[in-house]
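task queued by scheduler; priority normal; single chain, no ligands, no partner chains; default sampling; output format set to structure tokens
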Amino acid sequence: MSQSLVDDQAEAAPGPVRPVEPGTQAKAGRGRAEVRQVLRFLVRRPGLMLSAVVVVLVVLASFWPDLFTSQDPLKGVPSENFRGPSGSHWFGTDELGRDVFSRVVHGAQLSLKATIIAVLVAFVVGGLLGVVAGFVGRWVDDVLMRFVDVLLSIPALFLSLALVTALGYGTVKVSIAVGIASVASFARVARAEVLRVRQAVFVEASRASGARWYSVLGRHVLPNAAGPVIVLATLDFGASILAVSALSFLGYGAPPPAPEWGTLISDGRNYLANAWWLTALPGLAIAATVLATNRIARALDGEWSRR
């Protein structure tokens, strides 16, 4: 046999077969099945899919407004004031000739930032109060829950107005006021979930085995009690958008010419007779965002209730 034939057979010979891990194919199959399940879930619910698209667009506009418009929201052209919605100005122009669409897009950054801060304040402070009250119990539970009852007895908007009057004007201060006004509902839900999980069999078994209290809290109670509180945070997101916009509408938000959503509606109400779009279109943007977040929150609540 010639040397060339030996070389050809050596090249054609298969290399060593690498062993396949037993769980690799199973994990890949489960991943594909989960993706197909999510896609079927969204296709069967077009309203939920549309809500997700709206939320994604608002988030993109908040962090990357230049993706949607290249016009300066603060610079106007006086000769183009009070132009109606058109191809060049989708939401028309205001009394100074500023593009309303660019102001709505850039205003999403301020309004969404304030909403996120408000929800985080309510989630952290309310969740902490509820966890401490539910896990410690006894007189600590009584004191904290009486404080929560006082907060619940005051309407949220009135409490926000009182707090923002004491704190001062500005986007961050408005968001803190709105967040504190929502603390009571988070504390109630967190306490109820901690009480439910604390009485579970696996928690009692962990305590009986000699586990420390912080180990029981971190490994068993918090992971199993966090779901409903997260769903409440999603529900509260839409309510916080409305509260932040309402306070901005009343003049407690960022000073002009900052294009906060509530400020845009407040500025446009003086021209309803001849420029309806100044108020209607920013209002539609707020309504679409709130309805989309509420739809997603209801879907999450339904999925959590089935578990």
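post-processing summary
- Residues 100-136 form the longest helix (37 residues).
- The chain has twelve helices and no strands.
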